[in-house]
Amino acid sequence: MNVLDFINNNICFFDGGTGTLLQQRGLMPGELPERWNISHPEEIIEIHRAYFDSGSNIVCTNTFGANCLKFDERELDGIICAAVKNANAAKEKSAGGQQKFTALDIGPTGKLLKPCGDFDFDSAVECFAKTVKAGVKYGMDLIFIETMNDSYETKAAVLAAKENSDLPVFVSNAYSDDGKLMTGASPASVIAMLEGLGADAIGVNCSLGPKQLKGVVQEYLKYSSLPVILKPNAGLPKSVEGKTVYDVLPDEFAEDMLKYAQSGIRILGGCCGTTPEHISKTVQSAGKIKPKPVTDKNITMISSYTHAVEFGDSPVLIGERINPTGKKLFKQALRDNDIDYILNEGIKQQEKGVQVLDVNVGLPEIDEKKTLEKVCFELQAIIDLPLQIDTSDIEAMETALRHYNGKAMINSLNGKEEVMAQVFPLVKKYGGLVVCLTLDENGIPETAEKRVEIARKIIKTAEKYGVGKKDLIFDTLAMTISADTRCAVETLKALNTIKHELNCRTMLGVSNISFGLPHRDVLNGVFFSLALENGLSAAIMNPNSNEMMKSFYAFKALKNLDENCSDYIENIESFACCETVEKKISDNPKKENHGGEEFPQAPLQSAIIKGLKEKSAALTKELLESTDALEIVNSHIIPALDSVGKKFEEKTLYLPQLLMSAEAAQAAFENIKKKISQNKTQSVSRGKFVLATVKGDIHDIGKNIVKLIMENYGFEVYDLGKDVPPQTIVDEAVRLNAPIVGLSALMTTTVPYMEQTIKLLKEKAPEAKVIVGGAVLNKEYADSIGADYYAKDAMETVKYSLEILGK
Amino acid sequence: MSENVILTKKYGAQQIKPVDENEVRRYAGYSGKGIDEDGALTDVLRMVEKDLSGRLSYRVCYRRMPISWEEETPVMPFYCKSKNLASCIKGCYEIIVFAATIGIEADRYIAKSQKLSPLRALIAQAYSAERVEALCDKFCCEIRELLKEEMLCATARFSPGYGDLPLKTQADIFRLLDCGRQIGVYLNESLLMSPSKSVTAIFGIKKSNGKADTQ
Hints:
The structure holds two protein chains of two kinds.
Chain A: H1 3-9, E1 12-13, H2 19-24, H3 36-39, H4 41-54, E2 58-60, H5 73-93, E3 101-106, H6 121-138, E4 142-148, H7 151-164, E5 169-173, H8 187-197, E6 201-205, H9 214-223, E7 228-231, E8 237-240, E9 243-246, H10 250-263, E10 267-268, H11 276-286, E11 301-303, E12 308-310, E13 316-322, H12 328-335, H13 339-352, E14 356-359, H14 368-382, E15 387-390, H15 394-403, E16 409-414, H16 417-430, E17 433-437, H17 448-464, E18 472-475, H18 487-500, E19 505-509, H19 520-533, E20 538-541, H20 546-558, H21 566-576, H22 578-587, H23 603-610, H24 613-624, H25 629-649, H26 655-678, E21 687-693, H27 701-712, E22 715-719, H28 726-736, E23 740-744, H29 751-764, E24 769-773, H30 779-784, E25 789-790, H31 794-804
Parallel strand pairs in A: 1-10, 2-3, 3-4, 4-5, 5-6, 6-7, 7-10, 13-14, 13-20, 14-15, 15-16, 16-17, 17-18, 18-19, 19-20, 21-22, 21-23, 23-24, 24-25
Antiparallel strand pairs in A: 8-9, 11-12
Chain B: E1 7-11, H1 21-28, H2 40-52, E2 58-66, E3 68-70, E4 73-75, H3 83-88, E5 94-101, H4 104-116, H5 118-149, E6 152-154, H6 169-177, H7 179-183, E7 186-187, E8 193-194, E9 198-207
Antiparallel strand pairs in B: 1-2, 2-5, 3-4, 5-9, 6-9, 7-8
Helix pairs in contact in B: 1-5, 2-5, 4-5
């Protein structure tokens, strides 16, 4: 019998802990237990057999840490081969009459994945794949991925399992006492991701005892449509006479587990500290009850690496601003590979209150696949909102979905057969909530009925691919009423039918409705309210639209979706009264910085010196009406920075103050850039400057300060980020023909990479001068690795750069 | 207190002493009088604290282990020739090795701040550094109390990278403590820790009639 058939009708029992048992049998601290498969097969078989004898249905191989990071390929293969043999031998030897299965056990690699750590996602998939392939080769009944405390690594392991085997995949995560994974994911977010990836059973193990896991288990039972696994520790570890002892004894453990089985847990076992006795008592108590059926919860969820967003009664806002359409500066940022610009669009929208970010970086002249992957990755390093992958390039879509940490939204497919045939397999493989446009080969139907017809076709096709209705969200296409005043009515009608008759989620790109008409915000706000009333689940919108934000908060409050109207009260001020708020700021300027000293300079200069961001921006805007942009840079901004820089060198002013001024100058520059982008012939660039923290190093505070100050002085900074391989830096320097390259390293362990980078630069881009900086460096050290200059801080970098360029 | 097993501790924010703003200023490079008289930098610090304090997760894992001596050289669970460490733990027959972290959220906040305001990032960095030090102080203080009951005391703590104790000792410490699984701290190829606001250290245990550093 297949294990999946078995769990359909039965409560299923896993084995318990092995670590303690191995230690009792003489495993030394620091010794790798996986090697015992070969050196002590009898001991391993005995342990497995004891669990089968206790009534376990599934026993896991002794391969928790069997991966290619710990063992070379040959040894790994040998270990897995022996481990499988041992488990199967125990299965045969055991006299227990229950159904018996063996699972290939896979634990974490021990490395943290990027962006938090330095292990590459693709390398992680590859690493797990090697273990999976060996397990499959030697014959297993299922794969058990367990004790994962990072959602991204969990995804890597599941992908490896699904791509290299047809075996059932069970996945269990280790939650901390705050109810989250170590890297921050909530149970709902993990559940959304794992269901999307096609796991067969999911659950919780390790970390805590049965009682302490109650909160997490309840979340699983609430959200999971899959059978839920529970393998807790035998309580918390204590040490008695130099030995680890756990405080929940078999009787108490079995009692707790029985309650969980009654509440709906279908697969029970134990982790650290549990013994065959814990399992046999559990089997005796929970084995008697009638299993509670596993039901489809029919909850539509997407997730980020921290939390899930549910598409239920309360409408969801999806920010549309990460999209180059009609945005000059955004397009330029894409061409320049200026990821920071895009990230800032994300941050601003998050601050306005959107719950999901749409990400569209399609531009004919760029490599969309590469850019989309990079932008999603960088967004996920700093913003915890789920993303909506928005592209029509199917390869770009797949790469982005593969590397996304969580369950993404996908924008979009439509009723065209060809498009569905491309997108649905991706939805099935990686999971996702897919936006379905109600159009097909014949275009957008005029009537609501025909749009609903397309929706029905899409639902039917999705079913064929194994994608359920809950993972579809229908866009009934808002089109401008300036072309045809019937448009809004038909769109809303279709929306209403799909929501209430087909029982599906719906969304709209709301603001299209007003295209070509004056005061669009007014129409958008009212249309949004109408759509919400007709059952809109989500809107893709511009959160800077005050009217739409007002509708959103008012709707929730009026529809009993906002307890105590607290969201409304908290947020409405900033949207409903923004004119008054702005006025208040100008009436009551922020207190001034840098002591009471009076500056004789012009107002802008003085604002920058004092570090006043808003004021600097406003004064620049004013000046731009009468003064040339370059003139402002040369006569106001640069002298201000020079004055601050001088004080910094003299140590009468400190780094935080220098930064305050730099940020004020930055705010001034934003306005200058906007002006200049309208006038293509003008440029404020003093020269190109390639900047990176070298390979191996993840410290970038200092590098970012250099970036800011160099930008202030008008350098075009190409920031390659941190942990950058030598070749990437050299390629960029060559591509840009950059006269200066800045490198930063903070640790002695990463200076060798700096040296390698310089060597390669001298070879491939001999014209480029290299300035280095960072905590471990000094002039002598810099000379010894071949750098042209050592800059002790950002101001020195400016000084040398101006020197190099002879300015 | 238990011997030679890995134990973990988690602290609530209220268990750690309140943030020492002067210490944060020192880390951020602006301690001293006459700076920030108008309080603009203090405003940033307060904002960072408001944003970050609730998101920190204070965790420690540790292990108490016996050591022996071959003349002036300690024989420890890892190979180490450091004279500075040897002098720090001179006269001790046990050590405690520990790793402490304030969690991944501090890194995420700092990374996000970099994009918005390098000033805020600088202050957040300093704030987080102060917090992880405060955590280490709390942990060491608790251990000292426990040792007192055994008529023992602890030396000052010593971290890889101090003096002649090489950074590669980190790898040994991580092996001994299983930091990834225990408290979610990982070591990368360059021997840097993630989350970056983490500390590993070693201190010696000796009889309290011996000279103890109370820090």
